[in-house]
Design brief:
The chain is of the alpha/beta class. The protein has one domain: Rossmann fold (3-Layer(aba) Sandwich), CATH 3.40.50.150. Helices cover 33% and strands 33% of the residues. Strands 5-4-3-6-7-9-8 form a seven-stranded mixed β-sheet, sandwiched between helices. The chain has a two-stranded antiparallel sheet with strand order 1-2. Helix 6 links the parallel strand 6 and strand 7. Helix 4 packs parallel to helix 5 and helix 6 packs across helix 7. The longest helix is centred in the middle third of the chain and has 15 residues. It is globular, with a radius of gyration of 17 Å.
Length: 223
């Protein structure tokens, strides 16, 4: 059943204790609605099922840095795939930059918040799709750009993300993976090399209050 954007927003506000903040991304700013406390979303059933935790509901520095990087592009209607869209910060940046976006996540609620935030920002929604990296769906066409923020926090995700980029990236396209130094980052770079990709890394600082991070932007392309 297709739910209108106004109904979607009211349903999310009814189901969740939400907050809405103006979030700076590069030279832009987006109004982001999200659950007030991600810890409230932790369920034993999800954890027992596959150790899932609701990381999607938080705003991570890597997504802000990746969003700022994407805003530097001229999308011009090119296709962009986001892996792990969370509450939609990078997707909003990509839409603002002119990309035709497909936002994916392992949590259905993340897709709903991304749709709601896009509608509030632009009066339009991206295409969204539930996606499990272990059983990656087939798309009709490859993407000009693939992006992901802070997705290398489990060792198993290094080959998974590299494999998805391999099958999803168009010839001549590039992927950008933003990472603050998670446990699987080096393994991901190894997997990219093993698949014949070229990787160039740029490091950008993130500072907010007491938080100080250095975010690596790994740009992946075919040799």
């Amino acid at each position: 059943m297709i739910v209108s954007s106004a109904t979607l927003i009211s349903d999310l506000e009814r189901r969740f204790d939400t907050t809405s903040d103006r979030v700076p991304v590069g030279d832009s700013e987006f109004q982001i609605m999200r659950p007030r406390n991600s810890d409230d979303l932790i369920t034993e059933a999800d954890y027992v099922r596959d150790e899932r935790l609701p990381y999607w509901a938080d705003i991570w520095p890597s997504s802000l840095i990746l969003g700022a990087r994407v805003l530097e592009d001229k999308g011009n209607g090119q296709s962009l795939l986001e892996l792990g869209c969370g509450v939609g910060i990078v997707t909003l940046a990509a839409m603002s930059a002119g990309y035709d976006v497909v936002a994916t996540d392992y949590y259905d609620d993340a897709l709903l918040f991304t749709r709601a935030n896009a509608w509030r920002a632009f009066g339009a929604e991206p295409r969204t799709m539930y996606a499990d990296w272990r059983t990656w769906p087939a798309f009709e066409a490859p993407f000009d750009r693939v992006v992901a923020a802070d997705v290398l926090y489990e060792h198993a995700y290094a080959p998974a993300v590299a494999s998805i980029i391999e099958v999803s990236l168009a010839r001549g396209g590039t992927a950008i993976v933003a990472d603050p130094g998670r446990v699987a980052a080096d393994e991901f770079l190894h997997e990219c090399g093993r698949r014949g990709f070229n990787v160039q890394t740029e490091t950008r600082p993130y500072e907010a209050g007491e938080i100080r991070q250095r975010i690596n932007l790994h740009t992946v392309s075919r040799v």
